Amino acid sequence: MPLIPEEPQIHESAQGPRATPASGRTAPTPRPVPGPRPAAPPRPGRPGPARPMPPAQRTPRDTAVKPGPSAPAASGPSAASVPQIQLIPASAEGALDAAEEAVDLLLDSGRAPGDVLVITTGDPHPWATHELSFGEAAYWAQHDAGDDVFYADASALTRAASRPVVVVAINGGSEETSVAALPTALARAGTLLIVCGDPQRINSMLGASV
Q1: Is the pTM value of this prediction over 0.85?
Q2: Could you tell me whether strands 84-89 and 189-197 are parallel, antiparallel, or unpaired per DSSP bridges?
Q3: Would you give the end-to-end CA distance of the chain in angstroms?
Q4: Quick check: 43 and 126 in contact, CB under 8 A?
Q5: Going by C-beta distance under 8 Å and a sequence separation of 6 or more, which residues neighbour residue 171?
Q6: Could you tell me the maximum CA-CA distance found in the chain, to the nearest angstrom?
Q7: Between helices 175-188 and 199-209, what is the axis angle to 10°?
Q8: Contact, 150 vs 118, CB < 8 A?
Q9: Per-residue tens of pLDDT for the chain, all 210 residues
């Protein structure tokens, strides 16, 4: 069902600060590569070599997140199991930045890092590129450990396990890839699916995937 994009916000029972549109926002500090490995180089345009602290050291904020637009809940006995869908408007170039800010807000509001899966439809996240340089076995071992945010390409969704929150960055890639990724990402999301990208394109893809 098409979503009406409004001011980007994140639905969470553990409340945190409200998300803001990708355009005109201040870029967050890059996230550190978990574990003892050296940090991946920061993406161009992002300040500093790495995020300042591991997620485990984050202190949840007390600010509340106001409810934002979501897909209508399904009726019937299974309605409670249908995750909410949150749309964050962003260009293809800004979708990954918007996804990272959404992750920051989720963690700051008290979400455990292992609750969050981030999917990209275009270029992979720098963290994923860095970790895959050590081999797929080590990369997927971190996924299976489930103790940190995990970044994966849309093509890996069939292998990725369900997590309470799935964030999808529509940062390029073919229309076919994105259309296929959305329903799979929704199936992987336990309580919340956040989609960052062009609202008209996302609405069109959601309609095509139903």
Answers
A1: no
A2: parallel
A3: 8
A4: yes
A5: 92, 93, 95, 96, 99, 120, 121, 122, 123, 196, 197
A6: 49
A7: 70
A8: yes
A9: 555 555 455 554 444 444 444 444 444 544 544 444 444 444 333 344 444 333 333 333 333 333 334 444 444 444 457 899 999 999 999 999 999 999 999 999 999 999 999 999 999 999 999 999 999 999 999 999 999 999 999 999 989 999 999 999 999 988 889 999 999 999 999 999 999 999 888 888 776 554
